[in-house]
Amino acid sequence: MGIFDPPPPDAVKEKERERELLETQKESRGCYLCKIMFFIGALLTFSFFYEKQKLQRTRNVAVEKALTPSGVLPNFSGEYMIRMFYTDPGYFSNWEYNDVTVATQCSANHLHHVVKLWERWSGPISVAVFAPNLEASFATDAILSMQKCWPDMKKRVTFHLVYPTEHKADLSESSGSLEYSSCEELRQIIHDYGGDDSQNYKGDIPYPHNVLRNAARKGAATEFVFLIDVDVMPSLHMREGFNQFAKHLNYQSETNLKSWEPFYIARRSVPLFDERFKQYGFDRIEQICELHVAGYRFSVLNNAFLVHDGWKEAHAAARMTETFRNWVLFHFHFQQALLKMYDDPLSCAPVQTWIPRGQRLLGDINNRHARIQRKFLSNEV
Q1: How do residues 66-114 score in pLDDT, each as one tens digit?
Q2: Which of 130, 137, 129, 144 has the alpha carbon at shortest distance from 67?
């Protein structure tokens, strides 16, 4: 066979078989390694989820021990779920019916205001907290941490959880406590939750002020309820002064309420808030209007006052749409319904052209007739 002669066919076939055998062996080794890697990955994944579930079960047990075993009920419309007395209401062991409860509401990022409110108000406080989705985990840990930092808070403050039915409260990330080194740091952590603190609620879900207000009111066990915003601080000794005044209630003096929107103390039997009003605009005015239509009269505590905690920032542009929506609801639906609800009803404010807030304020300043006449009670409180 010459040097350039081709190899015999049998030799070529033999080499091809050897090459195929080597490739098959490589593939087998590759598949074997793939199986090992897949098995290791599956084992690690299973171990991760097992430990996660184990940790979650431990967390849930710790959290549930700190919470009150209570049911969850829908609000009137069914849009929201409410868990009343979310944490142990310790004040029920030491309370009196002839007293006044502060009722307030907030989202998770405003819970730090409750501490200052508790420091200034010596009586019971009922707080409804808006906590959809995972915000419920943060709110739960924040509340439980506050009760650890200020143990006496449990004796006078009770919390209620509110969330939309389509955004259920998710406690999967709750551990029963936030991580903090001091109580002041805890306040700051709650304050910083979600970023900018100037807004009441930072989420994209409409904030149901009146659903929360009604939940907080229903959590009051006393004869009287004082409903205020969570960032509004009452003057010192207001509770004691009102309780003294309530012993000899006198409705002879009253004030003109057509031009202002008061914070007031009332019995628990007053009408609830209309829960159709959400976000901003007419959400408290509507209830004042109903009280007026129903024939209620207001007296002025001339030595009591409220102060807003921090600067109140304007959000006129962002709230324009929701204010207009509530303006339509208030003037063309709500007031007409009131006329059918009460015998011989008084009239509320007539329909007014909707004007953006800044222009209305300027008009009020220039209008000499837009004055508030007040008659104070003769008894000092």
Answers
A1: 565 567 888 888 899 999 888 766 766 777 888 999 999 999 999 999 9
A2: 144
Cα 321 to Cα 241, 278, 280, 316, 326, distances in angstroms:
41, 12, 9, 10, 9
Query: Please, are residues 158 and 194 in contact by the beta-carbon 8 Å criterion?
Result: no
Q: How far apart are CA 271 and CA 295, in angstroms?
A: 12
Contact (Cβ atoms closer than 8 angstroms) between residue 174 and residue 137: yes
Distances (CA, A) of 353 to 123, 201, 260, 327: 42, 29, 17, 9
Closest among 121, 137, 70, 150 to 230, alpha carbons compared: 121
Any bridge partners for residue 80, and if so which? 164
Q: Looking at the 3D structure of the chain, how many domains does it have?
A: 1
What distances in angstroms separate CA 348 from CA 93, 331, 352, one per listed residue?
A: 42, 10, 12
| Euclidean distance between CA atoms 189 and 216, whole angstroms | 24
Answer yes or no: is 249 within a domain.
yes
pLDDT digits (tens, 9 = 90+) for 148-183: 999 999 889 999 999 999 999 999 999 889 999 999
**DSSP per position, 245-275:** HHTT---S-----TT-----EEETTSPPPPT
Q: 331 in a domain, yes or no?
A: yes
- Per DSSP, what are the bridge partners of residue 342? none
314: number of Cβ within 10 Å: 10
Task: Return d(Cα 107, Cα 130) in angstroms, integer.
Answer: 5
Amino acid at position 330, single letter: F
Q: Is residue 215 part of a domain?
A: yes
Mean pLDDT split into 10-residue runs, the chain, 381 residues? 56 64 58 62 56 51 60 84 82 79 94 94 94 94 95 91 93 91 95 66 78 93 92 91 79 49 84 80 80 81 75 61 73 76 70 54 48 40 37
Alpha helices in 193-230 (DSSP H): 209-218
Give the residue numbers spanning the domain of 228. 73-366
C-alpha distances in Å from residue 97, one per residue of 29, 54, 89, 92, 185: 80, 45, 15, 11, 36
Residue 358 located in a structural domain: yes
Tell whether the torsion through CA atoms of 7, 9, 13 and 14 is positive or negative. Answer: negative
CA distance 177 to 66: 10
